[in-house]
Amino acid sequence: MKRKSRVGLSVLAIVISLVWIFPVYWMLNSAFLPTTVLERFTPTFLPFGGSWRNFTSAMDDGTFFRALGMSVAITLIVVFFCILFAFLAALAISRFKFRGRKTFIIAVLLIQMLPAEALFLAQYKMMSSLGLLNSVVGVSIIYVAAVVPFTIWMLRGFVAGVPADLEEAAMVDGLSRFQAFMKITFPLLAPGLVASGVYAFLQAWNEFTVALILLPAEDAQTLPLWLRGFVQASATRATDWGEVMAASTLVAVPVIVFFLIVQGRMTSGLVSGAVKG
Amino acid sequence: MSSPVTSPKRQAQSEESIKAAAHASKAKRRARRAPYWLIAASIGILLVGTGYPTAWQLVTSTQSYGLAQQFGAAAEFIGLQNYIELLSDTEFWQVVGRSLVFCFVVAGLTLALGLAFALLMNAVNKAVRLILQISMLLAWAMPIVASMTVWTWLFDTRRGVVNYLLDKIPGVDMYRFDWFASPWTFFLMAGIIVTWMSVPFVAFSIFAGLTQVSDEVLEASALDGASNGQRLRLIILPMIKPVIAIVMLLQVIWDLRVFAQIKILQDAGASGSKFDLLGTYIYKVGTGSNDFASAAAASVIVLILTISISWWYVRKLMKEED
């Protein structure tokens, strides 16, 4: 009886997995098939007879690599500064009692609720008056500000999870405060830092709205904007879905690979931040 | 030390202790200032990246701001005029209503599915769980523009797989069905897509919460004769309540301001104000008609909506911080 319900649940779980993965599979499948096959009435469910042709033609004009460079630059800047700023702030709020601490925490929480979509006009005005439209710096400033609150929130749980006593014990044993921190606390924080880094990476790499507003020039496009432009250009001459799916794959693959590598740490990080918060 | 005579040694000691005390108070002062140094960078970037734009938004929403101001004319202060105009506009109310309904339906569905999937992950064996987790992760990791592109292809009128498969069901005629034609099917499609994207985060968060529920408690309750349903309702759910609360809050906030998904779907073949939610409405007012002031006022209203929805949670947290 019990085993039967187990089997039933397993079957259900596998059906759900297939449903959830289908769009991703369909993207890959279509990316390898020629347009003539995709135009048939009956869909082709396996990419037999497929080729890399769609990929090569999607990368043809070099705009892909320009967008890739832009995305990589912005993402690196955002990840670095987010981790640094959030780490320092998390240290402050979980290791020190100070006036304004509560206000700071509430402010961080409230800022997370600010709809970025409601701020983009102001951000546009600000960056255009600073001459930072279409620049890596302008977008990065907005991204860091958008991502830092959540990373502070996440890291705070981790820092609080490492008891200060541990550090003090190490100091009694003759380590300096800095050494104690580097040898005891830092390694224990590593999963939290990785999790926040991944979070920042995903936000910066995938972001669409702010990039749409702050990077209007074609040669300043990030990958999501490049993909959108690619789709629109294709739509003007009856969408070539094979090529469009190859382009989507090119944008998605780095994220998927990266995500799968760090997935365990990512989810545990997200949650311990939330639960202990 | 017990000698009543003041020895030079003791003198030196006390001098040293004064020095030490001074040193300690200096260190203390430094320690007092340390947290402010630590949060300075974050505060700085937040002031530039969000503080200034928010303030600008608030100021602009009380001004008359149009094309003339774009070319340098000074904006005029008109108080709450923009808000009054917005709030007496039936189209705006329709957009607000549509956004709220969309947000609560999608967030509710996402939460229900996420919870169910998390419980499922907990119930099945390791291999099946891994399959489920990998498929959820892939959906989660997909860049939003990439997944929207795939979904527009899936819902394509002529060659979309969705129409093809639905048409296979006996008695259902979905041949060349146009999902983008009516707001109902448009938002049904958008709801499916947004749910698909959001469920993994909820499922993983709740699953991680579930792993923290101790086995001993569950075994004890089983010994006491609790049924599965009772265990879920009386033990598991109360224990993972904090996780559920935060993911619910985040989900509601995210779904209320959903923009990229709707914008990309609109680009793919639907226009007109009947297809707008708050995000795209503000975008259209702000960029299309260049009416920054009305757009700013609408943004402030979204902000107020968001804060009032999440107020109970923020208050609870404030109490905990005391």
How would you sum up the global shape of chain A? globular
Total number of beta strands of chain B: 2
Kindly report the average pLDDT value of chain A: 84
How many helix segments of chain A?
A: 12
CATH architecture of the largest domain in chain A: Orthogonal Bundle
Q: How confident is the prediction overall: mean pLDDT of chain B?
A: 84
Major protein interface: A-B, 100 and 100 residues
User: How far is the first residue's CA from the last residue's CA of chain A?
Assistant: 41 Å
The coarse overall form of chain B would be flat
CATH architecture of the largest domain in chain B: Orthogonal Bundle
CATH class of the largest domain in chain A: Mainly Alpha
Tell me the name of the CATH class of the largest domain in chain B.
Mainly Alpha
CATH homologous superfamily grouping of the largest domain in chain A: MetI-like
Structure description:
The complex is a heterodimer of chains A (277) and B (322). Chain A is mainly α and 277 residues long. Chain A has 2 domains: 50 residues, no CATH class; 216 residues, Orthogonal Bundle (MetI-like fold). In chain A, 79% of the residues lie in helices and 0% in strands. In chain A, α3 crosses α12, α7 crosses α9 and α11 runs antiparallel to α12. The longest helix of chain A is centred in the last third of the chain and has 36 residues. With 322 residues, chain B is mainly alpha-helical. Chain B has 2 domains: 42 residues; 224 residues, MetI-like (MetI-like fold), CATH 1.10.3720.10. Chain B has a two-stranded antiparallel ribbon. The interface between A and B is large, with 100 and 100 residues.
Descriptors:
heterodimer; A: mainly alpha; 12 helices; 0% strand; disordered C terminus; B: 322 residues; mainly alpha; MetI-like fold; 2 domains; two-stranded antiparallel sheet; 14 helices; 77% helix
